[in-house]
């Protein structure tokens, strides 16, 4: 039975149950267990369809390079969730026992992801080179997944990794380094990192230097707070020094967009400004940043569009780029949204064909989609200020319901 052959028996809708409070506990738990089984089966079908779409390069129909980017841009999934689906899609064809259990609903997507993390394409190739029977591990993983706690599967999968590399990790310690940052709804950021012994020593030494240099009398900050402040101070020092790599002709700097009247007004002004990475901050915090920063004035039209910078240049000037970023914020190609610092300013009408280097003739596009619009795809900003994207056959790429 393939994943797509597995029948789906719709569980009872919650509104069909007159009152959950009247159900015996056993019935409530049975209902919940049934819902989880159906979710597992749906997840298995999603992985199967994703695999087919990846093999047939279906994402190219909408101008995107991968199913991961399509899932993020068109279905609004998080990057982590899209990656999990793609990993599962690539794995299931190589682990038939686990795939069957997934299709039946007795294995969860999280369990499949644990296996996928250790049995990627390169891992399977190494196993083949060493004569390791992946089929035996497939059967073992499936048996553990359907009958044991989640952590037991993690331990079992680790045994496969150990079998691939019985002599321990590779000598290059940098291969295990990881850093992830997540931005929350209020603009705050949390993160996690994993460093080797030497990398960790370097980071701790740098942080400790700042911590010990800033210990005013009466300081009530916790150790964790002092280290967080030291990390921000290290970033401040590097940005102020101007020695970081240049991004698209502009030195890295914190970008904050705020209306002039909010900048000069008094009061907190919550939600009045936005940073380059999309966090919404108060006017008070923007004023604080402006106290020791460069202020660039961009005159906005009555419809909220930045006005033309007024000079004609073949090469986009820093001032024009700032205006385009203020308007577009990210790649405007449908379903993309790549951040502005990795994007280029595209001439809608090429300057060689008479197009002006002006705001009205500019669009922010990432490198891939800049190439796409030079090979048949097209972007256009309608009179209402909404960017639209068209395929080479002039059909529009639409994400979600049409908003007129």
UniProtKB/TrEMBL annotation:
Keyword Acyltransferase: no
Database matches in SMART domains: HNHc
Keywords: Endonuclease, Hydrolase, Nuclease
Entry GO MF terms: endonuclease activity; nucleic acid binding; zinc ion binding
Any Pfam family: DUF222
Domain HNH nuclease: 319-371
Protein family according to the UniProt entry: Belongs to the Rv1128c/1148c/1588c/1702c/1945/3466 family.
Protein's UniProt name: HNH endonuclease
